[in-house]
Amino acid sequence: xxxxxxxxIRCFHCGNETQMQRxxxxxxxxxxxxxxxxxxxxxxxxxxxxxxHRATLYGRYRDETMIRADEDGRPCWxxxxxxxxxxxxxxxxxxxxxxxxxxEAALKIKEFDRNxxxxxxxxxxxxxxxxxxATKWGLKDKIEExxxxxxxxxxxxxxxxxxxxxxxxxAHGKELExxxxxxxxxxxxxxxxxxxxYILPDQIQICKKRLETENPGNGEAETAL
Length: 225
Known about the structure:
This protein is an alpha+beta fold.
């Protein structure tokens, strides 16, 4: 039940799917379901994992655009539900679906399966390079190929090489033991590469379209771009 003080949730800190106790919450919005009104409602709920004792922030949202008819034909407003913390998803439509899914797979096990997380991050990198036109066989050669095309600056080329090294170490158990800090850093580095290749260009296009709409024929804006 939505109003229950307990909920079965997967803890992305320890990996257990378990019944958690709600420790607090906050909601705001405007709704009167009995009178068939629901402009919008946002609910935040904080749960504690009984296994690892770490917190999960659970969010629910619904608004007037989400109205549906139930089995009896009466209006209802289904919830859009999401675990907000720890972060385990990537909310950005600019990233290709297969790359987004690979990255989310890594995030979902980041806290409790370091080696598999690192391998999933390495796979995410390889998918990005392939999507950008890499044709070489090995990942090292793919990184060099994409960098040579000018699609990766030197810092992100180095970040890619580090992701390969740590991913290889996780897969083969060589060179070093993967730590929690290693996983955290690599997840950020892969995110930076993703932002450079997909998210930043998309945001630039959004800004340019706004300028074109608000300032058609503005010579100064066109020169600045």
